[in-house]
Amino acid sequence: MFARNVIYLDNHSRAIDEPGQIEEMRKNIQQGDVYIAKNVFEKDLIQRMLEYLTRVGWGSLPNYKKIEKGCPNFHRMNLWDPRAFVQGCFHQFVFFPWNQDVFNLFEVTRSVYYMKNLLSGNPKDKFLGMEPEDGCTSRLAFQFYPKGTGGLNKHSDPVDHHQLSVPTLTMSKKGTDFNEGGAYAESANGEKIYLDDVSEPGDVVYFNAIIPHGVEKIDPRSAVDWLSFKGRWMLLFATNKLSDNSAIRDAVDLEKGPKAA
Predict the structure, then answer these.
(1) Most buried among 66, 83, 166, 208, using CB within 10 Å?
(2) pTM over 0.85
(3) In this predicted structure, what is the pLDDT of residue 261?
(4) How many CA atoms lie within 13 A of 207 on its CB side?
(5) In this structure, are residues 33 and 215 in contact, taking their beta carbons and an 8 Å threshold?
(6) Which residues fall within 8 angstroms of residue 79, CB to CB, at 6 or more apart?
(7) CA-CA distances (angstroms) from residue 7 to 32, 66, 68, 110, 157?
(8) Domains of the chain listed by start with CATH number
(9) What is the distance between the alpha carbons of residues 213 and 184, in angstroms, rounded to a whole number?
């Protein structure tokens, strides 16, 4: 499975209430089309989120946590961490639906999870409760890729009863916040569709999670400064299996090992 066409969706909220459009989107995504839902989030809200996360990153120690029932919200630095199924270099801020947070994030982002669930053939509020369902839970993961080193190996995510797509929110503008690299999905001829070239901050991207995709190193000739928080930000609307769930396969790293510095 590879990426095919890029299709723009101008009214995300209306599409959620139109079963015929959901079915059309599902079929197209299953065949490789990439959807860009325009202006789903206000840029001012995105900026407030980034300011908050930056303060959290400055003011508290990063820690690694397994995905388990009752897991606290946390942030961690992933510098080619061998515990990760997919090798990468980024700073991640993770939120779960059973924890409270200052933005009420799972309420703010509910429409994206509704769309994600409907595209997967699930009830729209699946996996959004205080308790995990079918060994899975929703998980919001903000990811910051610093200039000079940030990236994520090409990989394929599992498609099963829990998800067809792993939507992402574009939070940084290519050409302003960074200039080279960024998220991509691979087409059948091996070319990369750079998602930051076809989306703007506030847009949400949907594509089939098994398509090979990754994040090409951000501004590779820049000096590395993790504390500046200069580079590329994104938000993953994940539905993850719990750490003890073996019924769903793991993500597959298609490069194996860290990229050269």
Answers:
(1) 208
(2) yes
(3) 45
(4) 30
(5) no
(6) 89
(7) 11, 36, 36, 22, 21
(8) 6-253 (2.60.120.620)
(9) 6
CB 178, CB 231: distance < 8 Å? yes
β-pair type (151-156, 34-37): unpaired
Most distant pair of Cα atoms in the chain: their distance: 49
Indicate if the pLDDT at residue 199 is higher than 90: yes
Q: How far is it, in rounded angstroms, from Cα 159 to Cα 157? A: 7
* Residue position matching structure tokens 């729209």: 124
Beta bridge partners of 35: 7, 206
Angstrom distance (rounded) from CA 240 to CA 139? 7
- Please state whether 101 falls in left (phi above 0), alpha (psi between -120 and 50) or beta: beta
Residue 142, both tokens: 């903000």
User: Which tens digits make up the pLDDT trace of 104-123?
Assistant: 999 999 999 999 999 999 99
Residue 230 to residue 225: CA distance in whole angstroms: 8
Question: How do residues 132-172 score in pLDDT, each as one tens digit?
Answer: 999 999 999 999 999 999 999 999 999 999 999 999 999 99
